[in-house]
Design goal:
Number of strands: 0
Strand content: under 5%
Largest sheet: none
Number of domains: 2
Radius of gyration: 38 Å
C-alpha cells in the first residue's frame, strides 16, 4: 500500500475527493484488498461520526438569538413604515403646495376684483407660505433626528 493512497482514504470516506481522484482510487481499491479493507474501516468511521448528536445550544443562547432576530425584524418593519410615511408626506406636501397656489391665486384675484385694487402678488404670498412650510419641515426633521440619536438608533 502506498502512502499516497493511504492519504486519500480518509478524504474518500468524507466525500472530499474530486471525481478524477475518486475514480483512480476506486480502480486501485478494486485491485488491492488491503487498501479496500482500510477504506471500508474509514467509511464505517465516517458513518459513525455523521450519526453522532450535535451539540445543543444553551437556552440563554437561544433566547438571545430570538431577541436579536425579533429586534432586527422590528427595525426592518419600522424602516419600511418610515419610508412609506415619508413618501406619503412628500406627495401630500406637493399636492398641498399646488392646491394652495391655486387657492391663493383665486382668493387674491377675487379680493382684487371686489376691492378694485391690487392686493399684492400671489407669488409673494406663495413664497411666504412655501418658506414657512419648508422651515417647519426642517425643524421637524431636526427634532426627529435628535430624538432618534438620543434613543441610540443613530451612532
Amino acid at each position: 500500500m502506498s502512502d499516497h493512497v493511504r492519504e486519500l482514504l480518509p478524504l474518500e470516506a468524507a466525500g472530499a475527493l474530486d471525481p478524477g481522484e475518486s475514480a483512480r482510487l476506486a480502480a486501485h481499491l478494486g485491485e488491492c484488498a488491503a487498501c479496500a479493507a482500510e477504506a471500508a474501516s474509514w467509511r464505517d468511521l465516517a458513518d459513525g461520526v455523521r450519526h453522532l448528536p450535535g451539540p445543543r445550544p444553551s437556552r440563554s443562547l437561544l433566547a438571545r438569538t430570538r431577541e436579536t432576530v425579533e429586534a432586527r425584524i422590528a427595525e426592518r418593519a419600522e424602516r419600511v413604515w418610515n419610508r412609506a410615511a415619508l413618501g406619503f408626506l412628500v406627495a401630500f406636501a406637493w399636492t398641498l403646495v399646488v392646491v394652495t397656489w391655486l387657492v391663493l391665486d383665486l382668493v387674491t384675484g377675487e379680493v382684487a376684483v371686489r376691492l378694485q385694487r391690487t392686493v399684492g402678488s400671489t407669488a409673494a404670498w406663495y413664497a411666504a407660505y412655501l418658506v414657512t412650510g419648508w422651515m417647519s419641515a426642517v425643524a421637524a426633521a431636526l427634532l426627529l433626528g435628535r430624538r432618534a440619536h438620543e434613543e441610540g438608533r443613530i451612532a
